[in-house]
Amino acid sequence: MPVLELLRYYLWITPHLLQIGIAVIMFRRGLARLFPWFFAYTCFEVFEFALLFTADKFHIGTVSYFSLYSIMNSVSTILRFGILMEILRHLASSYPVLDRVLKPMFRWAAVVLLVGALMLAVFAGGNRTNLSWFAMNMLDRTVLILQTGLLAGLFVFSRYMTLSWRNQVFGIALGLGVYATADLIIAAILTQTGFARAQLLDYVGMAAYHGSVVIWIYYLLKPERVRLADVHELPAHDEVEVWNQELDRLLNR
Asked: pTM higher than 0.85, yes or no?
């Protein structure tokens, strides 16, 4: 078996075997209730892998495999948006007034990013030799711009407001961000080069996903404990409380 084919199978199979471990860890530690969208996404990715791997091995046909992949990818995309909302909820859970401000900001940011991504999809050029593949790639890129932009906004906002991220929430967001950013870059390249380079860039995408899964495992296994550095960050926490109180006063005028 050629080295590249062995690498392909490794990058395809290993992350999903690790995701079975993630699902078991989450179930045994009660994290499935704390992060239901992420747990559902993890289980679905294992199911999707089993289905697509079987379809690939039994050679059900290019068109059928393409259709099956498109359906699975659509469901996966919906679940990733659910994870984003879950991250937002955990981020602002300690500050109810900030939560009231964050959600409208999150919605408006989503609208702006969606409009920008759609305009880019309409006016951007690209290789259109395979129209069905080109259309799916452009749709995928639009969704990835939206997801990557929202994740970047959450990171920037939390940093600016000095909000404390719980370790597991940060790990889920970081892993999702790595995967979404890599996929966005790949989708942008493929829009210009066409289907011919898809197989080569698949290795990059699978490697990025492998890295994301490793990040998730690390943060889920990492014990949640208070560090000395957290004590030194108490003034920043008090500053956020002031923000919380001021926002409460302004919103209730």
From this structure: no
